[in-house]
Amino acid sequence: MQLKTANHSDLLKLPEEIQKLLYRKSVVPIVDQFSSMWGHRDPIIIFAGSYGSGKSFFASDDLINKCLNDNYFRCFYGRKVYDTIRGSIFPTIYEQIEAHNLKGFQYSKANTSSMIIEHTNGNKFIPFGADKIDKLKSIKEPSHFLLEELDQFTADDFGMCISRLGRTNKAQTQLIGMCNTDKVYREHWLYDILFGANVINATIHWSNYRKNSMLPDIAEYEKNLRVRAMGDEDLFNAIANGTPGVRNKENAWLYVNYKHCIIDERIEPIAGNTVYLSFDFNNEPMTCTAWQFNSGNHNMDGAGCFINCIGEFETSMAETNEEIISLLCKKIKAQFPYNPLRITGDANGRSRLKGVAGNKSIYFLICKYLSVHESMLDVPMSNMPHTASRALCNTILYNHKNIRLSHVNSPKTISDLYTARASEEKEDELVKDRKINKLDYFDTFRYIFSTYFGYFLR
Fold it and tell me: Is the N-terminal amide bond of 285 cis, ω within 30° of 0?
């Protein structure tokens, strides 16, 4: 049963009733930019380009057609990490089968299913992951590989898949990879294939969201991509135009432009308004930043919506942890004697302090010396991972219209914003050095956002 295809742009010219009838008759709409690739048998095909171009849907449709018609078809489909398949490429394939009203396919959508998709003709799609090399070595006689997020595979993974394809003479074998280019940096193994000499002689197909007629609103989608790029034009070009990924030369942890947030004038506390305190704990120093904001206003553009850093505090080394906490709290109470206080900070402060009477936690002592009831603690059970924290901080700084940090109120916090760097080895990991790059104030900055503004990330 060869699937009938039609250019999606042509179908859009027909009355909606006719379109629905054709879809029920298993006519497959092909986004025009992919029409020349339908049925291709080139040994290695890589679909690359922008977000939202429709690569995954087209590749799935093309392989479904081959599953229906080839005498022998064993397509191993997957991603680098096996556990991510169930929420990505697996539903893409079976949803396309259902969208085209195709019969004869058997599969289970249950969370414990094998994710094998089999047709009554004996052909099948079989999931795999490359996170364990034995999973690749155990693959027998594949006719096809479908690799989603190809950039996440290693060169060894890729080579292993190619070697598996050479072990059967039952079919004309094929490897199909799909990737966006925002993570294909100059040192990535895919860089030369996509942007250089193409040493493996793969067929490269470039696609773009602007040519995807199935997107309901291309202008709105581009707006979303610009929000995703958060002012980084290199990143926007990578996710929207398929250019190579570009690392920030200084690898700044805050990669958006936040100069509009930094002012020279003093920020005066608002009398009677709650002061939110964010703590980071090191014996030398122990630090805290003070903030005021209207956390109930979720509209970042709204009049009256603000986030102000109104002070920073630290203590030098004292004889015991309790003395450090007592000294710091005295400084805070002296500056905000009449404001209600709420407290957040490093989740590790929940742990018990040895050598302190009653073996109390740091936050218990903070409440004691600030004369604050423990119900005013907003401390999370665990700290937000650096990847999520980095995304959140950059999102807020780029999109919020009224964040203010002053060189008068919080000079050391501002210095930390400029200093913070991400690791070259571990993406998004914050680089720290207790002798040079302590970033204690920067941590309080991250904690205040993760506790009270996590909804911006959603």
Answer: yes
Residue 417 lies in a domain: yes
17: its two tokens: 């009733």
Are the C-beta atoms of residues 180 and 49 closer than 8 Å to each other? yes
Burial class, 392, CB count within 10 angstroms (exposed 0-12 / middle 13-18 / buried 19+) = buried
Q: Are 270 and 396 found together in one domain?
A: yes
Q: Concatenated DSSP letters for 317-385?
A: --SSHHHHHHHHHHHHHHH-SSS-EEEEE-GGGGSBPTTSGGG-BHHHHHHHHHT--GGGB---SSPPP
Tell me how long the chain is. Answer: 458
Asked if 418 and 276 sit in the same domain, the reply is yes
pLDDT in tens, 84-120: 899 899 999 999 999 998 999 999 999 899 999 999 9
| Residues 178 and 59 placed together within one structural domain of the fold | yes
Supply 340's token pair: 């209600």
In degrees to the nearest 10, what's the CA dihedral of 165, 168, 169, 175? Answer: -20
Distance, CA of 181 to CA of 242 (rounded, Å): 6
The three-point CA angle 184-53-235 to 5° equals 40
Q: What pLDDT, in 10s, does the model give residues 353-402?
A: 554 555 678 899 999 999 999 999 999 999 999 999 999 999 889 888 88
pLDDT top residue among 188 and 102: 102
Query: Are β-strands 4-7 and 27-30 bridged in parallel, bridged antiparallel, or unpaired?
Result: parallel
CA distance 260 to 216: 34
User: What domain range includes position 343?
Assistant: 259-456
Indicate the number of domains in the chain. 2
- Would you put residue 337 in left (φ > 0), alpha (ψ -120 to 50) or beta? alpha
**Same domain assignment for residues 135 and 227:** yes
CATH number at residue 281: 3.30.420.280
